Amino acid sequence: MARYFLPRDLHPAAWWVWALGLSVAATRTTNPWLLLMIVAVAGYVVVARRTDAPWAMAFRMYLYLGAVIVCVRVFFRLVFGGAEGSTIILRLPEIPLPAWAAGIRLLGDVSAESLLGGLYDGLRLATMVICLGAANALANPKRLLKAMPPALYEVGTAVIVALSVFPQLAESVLRVRRARKLRGGASGKRVAALHAIIIPVLEDALSRSLQLAASMDSRGYGRAGLVEARARLLTGALMIVGLIGVCVGVYATLDGSTPRFLAAPVLSSGVLVALAGFRLAGRRVRRTRYRPDRWHLPELVVAASGIGVAAVMFVTSTVNPMNLNPSLITLSWPALSWSPLLGVLLGVIPAVLTPLPASPHVPAEKVAA
Amino acid sequence: MSRVLCAVAFLVLATAPPAHAIDQSKGHPGYCRDGTGVTVVVDFQQLGGTTIVRCNPQTTRGTGLDALKGAGFQIAGVQRWGEAFICRVENRPSATEELPVKGRDRYREMCVDTPPAAAYWSYWHAGNNCGWEYSQWGVKNRDFSAGGFEGWSFSLNAGADTNPQPRIAPVRPGTEGGGCNAKEEPPPVSNDLNEKQPVQGRQPGEQQRQQTEDTSAPQPGSPTSAALPPPKPRPSASARPSAPNPADNVKFTGGEDAEDVTVAIQRQSGASDYAPWVAGAGVLALGAGAFFVGRRRKRAQES
């Protein structure tokens, strides 16, 4: 038991499975109670299990982004035709449009039903974005890239370089600002100050990337090896077609109103094509991993709790669709039944039943002892 | 932030008046008494349930949707098209009832996309003492005729030629035997979803109500298709159906004792009165918990 709770970083893929489970659950419902519950669960787990890494501190940004999404959705209902429904709460002057813009309405009467529809819709999208933010905050992207299949090695290298750029830029800005302060330069106009920061930072970034490129080149990164151009074209085409198929299939599976032949058939064939591409590409790349992350019991608990939330939502939505998508025929408080609510609460398990993240300040030997 | 927004929305909600199955404050039960309003007939056909006849005494111009709502019926559109496609009338077919649709095992109407052609509300209209005619127009695209009838009849496993007419003769009591003098409606001339029926027989000076319509308005006659098919040729004036005999009417009510739609939905969905309170308390508890846990972890790291 004590061994189970020894502080360590969990496998990043487990956090991604958990967060994707929560966001899949969010796609099934527009009930504001359930959506707020999902946001609260994700936020609690993030606060309880995040590290000090720069990507973990960005969760707040996702919360702001979610709020912006909700506001924009409601605002658009206000501007473009919010008259669906009978309870008019706001009468705005309608702006007449020429005949070729028929079907578009600017301002005019706004009904409570359409505003609520926009709110519920926006809340759903915001919840999904916040769930992805939770995954970003909890999963270490560098270790996630380490666990990637060898076929994605080159892409992974590019992504990791891109990921490490942002913290470096921030660090560079801080350094240049501190240097300016120490020099005691004229703290005059803001535009001039910006000028004096941006140019050194950009110069710094450029020289750094040139240095990185040179060092990677000397270590043999980016070597294509002895692979025929035709084979590379084939694997590239297979992967892209497969991934497009997966995207279309996932969309159709989650959206109930798309034709069914786009769902399971396209998804499965896309997965097959992409796997074939991975296989072909992986055959020519041989990589070994240093101390690979392993899946232990806590990882399984995390993944299972996310999958459990999504599964409960799928099962209950075939039983009682009405309180998952509150009706807007008549204005009333959205109803809620127990099963989806308790299902969402499954998502909070990782906040309790996982080890704390390893503290970067404590040497690994001390923790192990 | 989103929590605050939600709270504001609920405040708006809480001040809204309670809804009833049939809004008795709108319209009145039974046929219209004179030639000004429009009588709305809702025939549940094979869904079961007593046919409802109500009058919308509206004297101004209005669409088929206005007629239905003004008579006090509670309707639901589909999520994809909004109220341009009537999916439920008086919560029928409800999300919990299984419809015996041919070829769709255990079909239940979720009102997400256009309902299947084998199970949908067919839209009819008739002048007084005329025969029922299947509407070639969408519910938001045609105007009801004053003194006439609007019919809604659930079409289950019926073809384009066998859609069941409402089983109430479109004849106002006291006007039996009178001739049909309603003008025939022109069919749509384009595939434009927003095409409006031309206004007939109105004084040019009459104030025309500003139409506030949604962009997507498919015709109820064309279910399960994203693109609208071209209008079907209609029977000529000589082939117009004649009025059925009012003696063949089925039993009907004014919907006075219909169950409250909100209550019915709550019962059917298995919702609990306490669950929203628990959800709200849970959200607050998790928020407070996150605050304290975050502070504790921060202190632990600093020490």
**Helix fraction bin of chain B:** 10-25%
Order of helices and strands of chain A: HHHEEHHHHHHHHHH
- The low-confidence runs of chain B, each spanning 5 or more residues with pLDDT under 50, are 1-20, 201-231
Number of discrete domains of chain B: 2
Percent range of helical residues of chain A: 55-70%
Radius of gyration of chain B, CA atoms, in whole angstroms = 24 Å
Distance between the termini of chain A: 16 Å
User: Could you tell me the mean pLDDT of chain A?
Assistant: 80
Number of helices of chain A: 13
Mean pLDDT level of chain B: 74
Low-confidence stretches of chain A: 363-369
How do the strands line up in the largest sheet of chain A?
Answer: 1-2
Q: Given the helix and strand composition of chain B, which structural class is it?
A: alpha+beta
Distance between the termini of chain B: 32 Å
- Helix tally of chain B equals 4
What is the beta-strand fraction of chain B? 15-25%
* Main sheet specs of chain B: 7 strands, mixed
**Major β-sheet profile of chain A:** 2 strands, antiparallel
Q: What's the total count of β strands of chain B?
A: 11
Give me the secondary-structure category of chain A: mainly alpha
